[in-house]
UniProtKB/TrEMBL annotation:
Region of interest: Disordered: 151-186, 439-474, 492-514
The protein's name: Recombinase RecJ
GO molecular function: exonuclease activity; nucleic acid binding
Domain DHHA1, first and last residues per copy: 461-527
Domain of life: Archaea
Ranges where the DDH domain occurs: 25-141
Domain DHH-CID: 236-319
């Protein structure tokens, strides 16, 4: 790049130079779609640069996890999609000489700095809407390609991290030179833009219909490199894989009476269109329609929405920018950035980050099938979770609303459920929502367990006493002053926990039994922010 801002680019180059001089690196990343794509970008970058590495995934970077990392033999640890919020703890290990951190993250940083810290928020770029963890990793990937090329070309003397000198090239450049014949997009890492787009979409950075800011630059690079295609399209989930009736029935973000959540209504709507939307007797998917067919369905949908009194602002949301991964097969989850990201969440949030990483790295046989199985489970869990919240309702406080799922929703997806439930009956969009779930849920309960549960049966007494809280807001609340990262940090620490995240979405861990106190404190802080 041609980074989003020159200072971010300079910082990326510094991080890249350090990584190039490493004999090996420990790569640590977060267990969601953005964390997985971050790791996949970083892994391919290190691999192409010839820097040996090992990858680990963590649900949360807490003191114990960081201590565990410090106890490994690695001198350099590359953190992606987390690390900034824990810089205070990481910094102590750095001071003690345990390892040098390199961080590519977009979460709100703790009150501490380090040399190789790549975070959009340090450079005036919004980390919740303009650059994701995968985006930061992509900026690093582009810098690393540049650094490797320069060292390869110049044959200059490189000072290694251990103070010794290597002539000609760092470990980095020598391997890269043997890469000489591959396409430019690959050698300069621009092909990785596709994964960066999936990460950004996975973190809902396109929530106003399209990606913007630094993300938009990455999209442009991906388009140039031939790995991403964009276009105005229906902004509904499931364009590649959902048969048309399901595609329409399940699309509830813009609620269209008589179609949304209405199986026979959706079928009737399609039947009345006078198009042949089946192939071999099976309903086709949106992506398989011709542009004329899409046009016909879309206009009929808008017409129906208007006639049923759906407000114009809502109708506008029916159309958005779609991000297509052009190298992926039509009709698969991998072709649509949004479906791809959901597939990844379905792996990593169920202790199977290895499967999601395999898919990102191109393992299209074993890993993809496995991921699809996990996806069916994830979908069911989300839908049951949303039903639970909607039927049992949420508790309204003055400035916030909340529910406690106990062990009935897995803590790793309770935030997704809370976000998706907002706007449903009884769940307001004018207050942030706080969702509690037991941290031990995936170990002790058969509910929402996924297939990984059997593999993890070690009872952990401490974990039984911890509660996860996820918070979700809306962009309109953020414009009025809401900052959930601050709320989660402050309110959780007030009750002996810890947390952080973004203005619009954040999380925390609190001790069991302190939930109500936490809500009281959060209610106060949100009240102050919105006043
Ligand atoms: O850890 P990380 O930054 O990747 O997670 C961000 C989370 O915030 C995601 O679960 C994403 O779905 C959520 N989010 C949201 N609404 C937004 C932006 C992000 O719910 N507008
Ligand atoms: O991106 P995020 O993980 O927050 O997406 C929320 C989940 O909602 C996805 O995992 C996907 O399965 C589901 N999805 C859906 N229908 C929609 C939007 C999202 O099933 N309209
Ligand atoms: O887990 P959840 O999806 O609710 O996380 C929302 C955001 O808050 C994510 O960006 C996550 O990384 C962050 N978070 C955090 N500290 C925690 C829990 C979540 O920074 N203890
Ligand atoms: Zn992220």
């Amino acid at each position: 790049m041609t980074g989003p801002v020159p200072e971010l680019e300079d910082r990326a180059i510094a991080c890249a130079e350090h990584l190039c001089d490493c004999d090996r690196v420990l790569l640590a990343s977060h267990i969601d779609a953005d964390g997985l794509t971050s790791a996949a970008i970083a892994a391919q970058t290190l691999e192409r640069a010839g820097v040996p590495f090992e990858t680990v995934f963590e649900k949360q970077l807490d003191e114990d996890v960081i201590a565990g990392i410090a106890a490994t033999e690695y001198d350099t640890v590359l953190f992606t999609d987390f690390g900034s919020g824990q810089l205070d703890v990481i910094g102590e290990h750095e001071d003690a000489g345990a390892f040098t951190p390199v961080i590519a993250d977009h979460h709100q940083p703790a009150d501490r700095e380090t040399e190789f810290h790549l975070n959009p928020l340090l450079f005036g770029i919004n980390g919740a809407s303009e650059l994701s963890g995968a985006g930061a990793s992509y900026v690093l990937a582009r810098a690393l390609a540049e650094v490797a090329d320069e060292t390869a070309d110049s044959g200059e003397t490189v000072t290694a991290a251990d103070g010794g000198e290597r002539t000609g090239s760092s470990r980095c450049s020598s391997e890269r030179r043997s890469d000489g014949g591959t396409a430019t997009a690959r050698t300069d890492n621009r092909d990785l833009a596709a994964l960066a787009v999936v990460g950004a979409v996975g973190d809902m950075q396109d929530s106003e219909g399209e990606l913007h800011g630094a993300n938009a630059k990455i999209v442009a690079e991906g388009v140039e490199a031939g790995v991403v295609e964009t276009g105005k399209d229906l902004a509904l989930y499931g364009k590649q894989t959902r048969p048309l009736p399901k595609f329409l029935e399940y699309a509830t973000d813009v609620y269209i009476p008589g179609i949304s959540n209405d199986q026979s209504g959706a079928l009737r709507f399609l039947d009345e269109l006078d198009l042949d939307l089946k192939s071999d007797g099976e309903w086709r998917c949106w992506a398989a329609l011709t542009s004329e067919e899409k046009q016909t369905v879309a206009s009929a949908l808008v017409k129906r929405a208007v006639s049923r009194g759906v407000p114009a602002t809502k109708i506008d949301q029916l159309v958005g920018t779609s991000y297509v991964l052009s190298a992926e097969p039509v009709g698969t989850e991998l072709r649509d950035a949004s479906e791809f990201s959901t597939l990844l969440n379905a792996t990593a949030r169920y202790d199977r980050a290895d499967v999601g990483l395999g898919v990102c790295l191109g393992n299209r046989e074993g890993a993809l099938e496995r991921a699809r199985t996990l996806l069916r489970n994830h979908r069911r869990n989300l839908s049951e979770g949303i039903d639970l919240v909607t039927t049992e309702g949420v508790t309204q406080e003055e400035h916030v609303q909340w529910f406690h799922a106990g062990d009935r929703i897995r803590e790793t997806i309770v935030g997704i459920v809370a976000g998706m439930a907002m706007g449903n009956d009884g769940v307001s969009r004018s207050k942030p929502i706080f969702a509690f779930a037991e941290k031990s849920a995936e170990r002790s309960s058969a509910n929402q367990s996924g297939e990984a549960a059997e593999e993890k049966t070690d009872g952990d007494d401490e974990a039984d006493e911890e509660i996860k809280v996820s918070a979700r807001g809306t962009h309109s609340l953020v414009r009025k002053g809401l900052d959930l990262s601050q709320v989660m940090g402050e309110a959780s620490r007030a009750v002996g926990g810890d947390g952080g995240g973004h203005d619009v979405a954040a999380g925390a861990t609190v001790p069991a039994g302190r939930e109500e106190e936490f809500v009281e404190r959060a209610d106060e802080i949100v009240g102050e922010q919105l006043s």
